[in-house]
Specification:
Length: 339
Amino acid sequence: MKERLEAIKQETIAKIKNAEDLNILNDIRVEILGKKGQLTEVLKGMKDVAPEDRPKVGQMVNDTRKAIEEKMEEVKAQLQEKAREAKLKAEVIDVTLPAKKNKIGHKHPNTLALEELQRIFVGMGYEVVEGPEVEYDYYNFEALNIPANHPAKDEQDTFYINKNIVLRTQTSSVQARVMEKTQPPIRIISPGRVFRSDQVDATHSPSFHQVEGLAIDKNINFADLKGTLQEFAKELFGPDTKTKFRPHHFPFTEPSAEMDVSCFKCGGKGCRFCKGEGWIEILGCGMVHPHVLEMCGIDPEKYQGFAFGVGLERIALLKYEIDDMRLLYENDDRFLNQF
Ligand SMILES: [Zn+2]
């Protein structure tokens, strides 16, 4: 028995020393110490040992097991360390590989159009001014010469917070605020969100964006308005763009006009894009009504000015050839990534 145990011990320790990896080491454990292992077999043979010799033999078996387990732990630690080093070597970071790209957002067509508009007007010396979306009735209507009985003030068209406060229906309210605080010369554009009580369809939304412009100084006349807006149209749609002014009516300007640009698709010949007209309506404009200047504390005898307002969505839809306004608000990545 003693020789047998000694043989198992020598043989196993030799095997353990030669083990090349943790799997082989585990196989050795199963082979010797496992349920059907050699050492377990020896223990099963104890029943044939004389009872008085059993404690002695038991001790020998335990000593053998202990010696094997100790060697095993030692080699296991070495093998683990080796495996760790090999892993570190294999997983060296290649700093020359291109980095993983984070998915970041994409500029909305509205933002692109706004940046373009701002670039053009800032280039002409205009300042960008913003104002509150929840606005006093006074700045949204009254200061802009819109009387109390004007149809625009109908609840069908305007969201009222209460009798005196509305969700602004136009960013012209910012113009009134600026004129009240600043003496001319004034040259501003005021971009922002506006609200109208409209049903959603391909060209309407209860919330959309406007960019309004205002220039006030001495000796400003309609030619200045035309020159400025012509320059704007050429910058936005190309140097061959022509403009056309049609008489119109707005309460806060006099005279007032709507401006069309020659179709940038067909050059004015008429196509599907301009519905055969050759012209596309772009914005409303006019000379600031003397009454508006007066109400905002500016002397209409000394100063004149012009104002214009353009729908940001309208520009985005035209410039990027989008045929349904609703697409702008759906936040669909597949749509937005096209611009
Ligand atoms: Zn056309």
